[in-house]
Design goal:
Elements: H1 2-169, E1 191-193, E2 196-200, H2 207-216, E3 220-221, H3 227-233, E4 239-245, E5 254-255, E6 276-280, E7 289-292, E8 299-305
Parallel strand pairs: 4-8
Antiparallel strand pairs: 1-2, 2-8, 3-8, 4-5, 4-6, 6-7
């Protein structure tokens, strides 16, 4: 029994060994197959890449052939253009020669014209100098005439003023005296007091207009220097502009001759900060000076030396 089992065991071992070897060979074959498949895939990818590269190379070759054709055309065009340039250059050189000749002729003509114009210009300058001298002489003569006219006008003005003064101060007595005049120290309508003439207006004006009226008659608004002089004015029983104001500087009262008003002959109830002075002849003498708005219209008193 034992002898029969031993051959079977050997066969089983041999069978198992064979199966193991076959399995090992199958695994190895599978691995080889896998490697072959990977190589096939790689070769396929490489074939695709090479096919694409070949297509690119073919396209590049086609592009190069087209470029060569285009370059041949460009070279032909450039050759034609160069020929045209050479022809144009030749024409320009010929035109330059012609222009040079024309320019030379114009230069010669211009030189002659310049010499001709220089002569004319010199003559015109000489004539201009003569005209300028003549105008200067006429201007000098005109200025002399103007000066003489001013002197004559001044003399005429003096004569007119003298004539008017003659009528004012020495009026004709009457027609029966054949123009005989009777002279007075003050003009008609003016009043003599001490050594001055006074004019008492019958109408009213502002302070500045009143002063302007006096100045047109060679006088000015009255400057009161004494109580006696003011008493002489206190006969009208009204308000009268006199020649003092603080127009230049508020509070600094000045007479029209520039002297400062030093008297304190003011009414105590009428100092209102106005700019022009007047007298109220209805007040007492020592309270008659007042300030008022320069725009108010009052009568006025003019004063002038005899």
């Amino acid at each position: 029994m034992t002898d029969k089992k031993e051959p079977e065991q050997k066969q089983n071992k041999l069978r198992n060994k064979t199966m193991v070897e076959l399995l090992s060979q199958d695994v190895a074959a599978t691995r080889e197959r896998t490697k072959l498949m990977e190589k096939i895939d790689n070769l396929t990818s490489t074939n695709v890449y090479l096919t694409e590269e070949y297509s690119k190379v073919v396209q590049v070759r086609i592009d190069q052939e087209e470029t060569m054709v285009n370059m041949s055309r460009i070279i032909a065009d450039l050759s034609t253009f160069n020929s045209e340039l050479q022809e144009g250059k030749q024409k320009l050189e010929e035109a330059s020669i012609v222009l040079h000749d024309v320019n030379q002729k114009l230069q010669n003509k211009l030189m002659k014209e310049r010499e001709k114009h220089q002569g004319i210009l010199g003559e015109l300058r000489s004539q201009n100098q003569n005209v300028t001298s003549a105008l200067e002489k006429q201007r000098t003569d005109l200025n002399q005439c103007k000066e003489e006219l001013k002197k004559m006008s001044a003399k005429l003005q003096c004569a007119v003023e003298a004539y008017h003064s003659l009528d004012r101060y020495c009026p004709v007595v009457n027609q029966n005296t054949q123009g005989k005049r009777m002279c007075k120290k003050c003009a008609e309508g003016w009043t003599l007091f001490q050594s001055k003439c006074y004019y008492f207006s019958s109408r009213t004006l502002s302070w500045s207009s009143s002063r302007a009226w006096c100045q047109t008659h060679r006088a000015d608004l009255v400057i009161i220097n004494s109580e006696e002089e003011q008493v002489q004015m206190d006969q009208t029983n009204t308000r009268l502009w006199i020649g003092m104001s603080d127009i230049e500087q508020e509070g600094d009262w000045r007479w029209v001759d520039g002297r400062q008003v030093t008297s304190n002959d003011w009414t105590s109830e009428d100092i209102e900060g106005e700019d022009c002075g007047h007298v109220d002849t209805s007040e007492e003498v020592l309270q008659a000076w007042m300030d008022g708005s320069c725009k108010i219209s009052y009568r006025w008193i003019c004063e002038m030396n005899v």
